[in-house]
Specification:
It is built from 4 helices and 11 strands; from the N terminus they run αββββαββββαβββα. By secondary structure, it is an alpha+beta fold. The radius of gyration is 16 Å and the shape is globular. The mean pLDDT is 88.
Length: 201
């Protein structure tokens, strides 16, 4: 394992992932892969954009993932299966580094996010039915001062703090942004992650 990914793994393993605790709400299980790739020694997060034709969360930025099927032994199996279906990432190309806190969604799911290092030179094969676009963001850009902001919004009869990360014409927000924030809080003290080759407004 790359030394950088070993450090990320150690930080993730130092925090037990918290389960969603929302009494009175029935939430279905879902899982996502939070893919990290190294480009020129700089760690990047990989995101997808959902097609505008989908019934839920159309056009939104997301991580590869979806509902846990009955055939998935664990949420991790669901995350890896969905990553292969959506982007053509085989399980053998993913080094699982750890799990983040569960995250609820307004569509009544609780997402188990799994961080995984993916081979940088692996060609992706996005499914046109599930992925409209793929883009990658240097972690250093998401950690830069002033990039992250929050708003208070109501959903499911509760008020929530909603996270936002703008990036080059995209807005990473909602459950995906909450997962990003959770990851960044675990690794923000690693100077290697603050490297960034370019700045995209």
């Amino acid at each position: 394992m790359d030394a950088l990914w070993a450090q990320v793994k150690a930080r993730l393993e130092a925090h037990a992932p918290r389960a969603v605790n929302l009494p009175g709400l029935e939430l279905r299980e879902a899982a996502v892969l939070v893919p990290l790739r190294l480009h020129g020694g700089v760690p990047h997060l990989l995101f997808t954009v959902r097609p505008a034709t989908l019934r839920s969360h159309a056009g939104q930025v997301s991580f590869p993932g979806g509902a846990r099927d009955a055939s998935d032994p664990t949420p991790l199996h669901a995350a890896l299966r969905e990553a292969e279906e959506e982007l053509g990432i085989p399980q053998s190309a993913v080094t699982v580094l750890g799990q983040l806190d569960e995250t609820p969604t307004t569509s009544a799911f609780r997402i188990a996010p799994f961080v995984g290092a993916v081979q940088a030179d692996l060609p992706l094969s996005p499914s046109p039915d599930e992925v409209a676009e793929v883009f990658e963001v240097p972690l250093g850009e998401l950690l830069a001062p002033g990039v992250h902001r929050t708003e208070r919004r109501g959903a499911m009869g509760r008020e929530w703090e909603v996270d936002f990360y703008p990036w080059g014409g995209h807005t990473i927000w909602g459950a995906t942004a909450r997962i990003v924030r959770n990851l960044l809080t675990r690794v923000a003290d690693m100077p290697e992650l603050h490297a960034s080759p370019t700045r995209t407004p």
